[in-house]
Amino acid sequence: MAGQDADIFDDMRHRLITGEFGYGSKLRAEKLREDYNCSASTVREVLFRLSTVGLVEFQEQRGFRAPHQSLERQHDLTQMRIMLESEGACLSIRLGGVEWESRLTAAHHKLSHIEMRVRSSGDVIPLLGLWSRAEQEFHETLIDACDSKLLKRTHQVIYEQFRQQLVSAETNYGYFPENIREHQAILDAALERNEDLMRVRVHDHLARNLIKPLPQKSQPAAVGRSSAM
């Protein structure tokens, strides 16, 4: 990807996973080009690339849209995150050294600082972009020493789709105290080098986003509070 295209791709990806576009919103290249001072064809190419990682839906004759909300998809993405993050974190515990511990501790410090600021101010919106990046950095650093490029790449794709599914529906950010405790518990398990505890902590952090039970065709589902990011 050329430099400008890469910048547009990264910015659009961030806008998509932080909920700037609502579920099913039409993504018009002719309009978006104004945000980037580029051609509509450049934006279309970026949107095609984003569709290959599941952040944009494309249909012939209908064009590009932000993905629709899907409880089944939320459930599947949550299950995949639990599996990938648990395995990646345990491999990192096994293979990572002091350098990995230091990077993870630093990533957690940054995330915790932002989450504390959000909790004290009671308003996440001004810090949403910073928090989103710091939260992703922490979870990616958690699995970074797993020695599997495929696992890390797959986790990134699943993580971003997961965030996108939840963030557009989020209206109450009162769960930050719980998130702070859970992120600390994950860090503690990593520093204790306790793989069994790590699997429990990752599962507990994400499991509330599973759908119980899964919806039938014409039957509403009971949705757990979408808090763990």
Protein topology:
Elements (H helix, E strand, L loop, with lengths): L2 H15 L8 E2 L1 H8 L3 H13 L4 E3 L3 E3 L5 H25 L2 H24 L6 H15 L6 H19 L8 H16 L3 H12 L23
Antiparallel strand pairs: 1-3, 2-3
Helix pairs in contact: 1-3, 2-3, 4-7, 4-9, 5-6, 5-8, 8-9
Description:
With 229 residues, this protein is mainly α. The protein folds into two domains: 3-65, Winged helix-like DNA-binding domain superfamily/Winged helix DNA-binding domain (Arc Repressor Mutant, subunit A, Orthogonal Bundle); 71-209, GntR ligand-binding domain-like (Four Helix Bundle (Hemerythrin (Met), subunit A), Up-down Bundle), CATH 1.20.120. Helix content is 64%, strand content 3%. The protein has nine helices and three strands. The chain has helices at 3-17, 29-36, 40-52, 71-95, 98-121, 128-142, 149-167, 176-191, 195-206; strands at residues 26-27, 57-59, 63-65. The chain has a three-stranded antiparallel beta sheet. Strand 2 (57-59) and strand 3 (63-65) form a beta hairpin. Helix 2 crosses helix 3 (40-52), helix 4 packs antiparallel against helix 7 (149-167) and helix 5 (98-121) packs antiparallel against helix 6 (128-142). The chain is globular. The model is unreliable at 218-226 (pLDDT under 50). Pfam families: FCD, GntR. This is GntR family transcriptional regulator. Residues 2-69 form the HTH gntR-type domain. InterPro entries: GntR_C (IPR011711), Tscrpt_reg_HTH_GntR (IPR000524). Keywords: DNA-binding, Transcription, Transcription regulation.
The helicity comes to 55-70%
Structural class: mainly alpha
Shape annotation: globular
CATH superfamily of the largest domain: GntR ligand-binding domain-like
Strand order of the largest sheet: 1-3-2
How far apart the termini lie comes to 29 Å
Number of strands: 3
Radius of gyration: 18 Å
- SSE order, one letter for each helix or strand: HEHHEEHHHHHH
CATH architecture annotation of the largest domain: Up-down Bundle
**Secondary structure tally, helices:** 9
CATH class of the largest domain: Mainly Alpha
Work out the strand percent. under 5%
Return the domain count: 2
